[in-house]
Amino acid sequence: MTQTPEIIIEAVKRISIEAVAGGRFSGSAVRVGPCPLCMKGATKGSCFKIRDAVRWHCHRCDKGGDVVALEAALAGVGQVEAARRLLGGLWQERLDAPVEDATPRARADSAAEAAARKARYAAEIWRGGVAFAGSVAEAYLAGRGIESAVLAAMGSNLRFNPRARWFWDPVAKRWETAPAMVALVVV
Question: CA triplet 52, 53, 57: central angle to 5 degrees?
Fold first, then answer.
């Protein structure tokens, strides 16, 4: 018998099926609504049922499971990757959480270490970035209606990092990366 990876268990605990499914649901013990798999874009429907907030089943396409199975089906990825997508930074936050039974001194040391680690991480993301001017990040903000004069003024404090560390994958034992717009903030 195989053991369910901890990341999947965590995703099922933290993420609601309704949040992933979208649509409008009615009912209390059994929530009913449109299936996000076979009725994409529909706002009404009753073939998709959520029971006890943790299991779903569609009577139209005959699929079902938990929130991770739904994300996996929607994104066309495996279970672990679906859980990673659902949790994103929440999984990393959990890994960075201090150990609760540590002594007050150890907690203070680990808090200082965590702050130093976060500062190194932020510097690494900044250094890994490229100039903001002409980047995808600039095009994104321009597409959101921000005027070119404002973008030019902000340019020295913004960068684009195409492969910023996003979260630690404990299964693959490596950092997952994602593109990021990075702002320099000095306090």
Answer: 85
CA atoms within 13 A on the CB side of 22: 9
Rounded Cα gap, residues 166 and 145, in angstroms: 27
Cα-Cα end-to-end distance for the chain: 52
pLDDT digits (tens, 9 = 90+) for 126-181: 888 888 888 888 888 888 898 989 988 887 889 888 888 777 777 777 778 888 88
Q: What are phi and psi of 55, to 5 degrees?
A: -130, 145
The answer to whether 96 touches 111, Cβ cutoff 8 Å, is no
Confidence grade of residue 5 (pLDDT, cut at 50, 70, 90): confident
Mean of the pLDDT values across residues 51-79?
89
Do the beta carbons of residue 123 and residue 161 sit within 8 Å?
no
Query: In Å, how far are 6, 63, 66, 77, 96 from 83, measured between CA atoms?
Result: 10, 18, 11, 10, 18
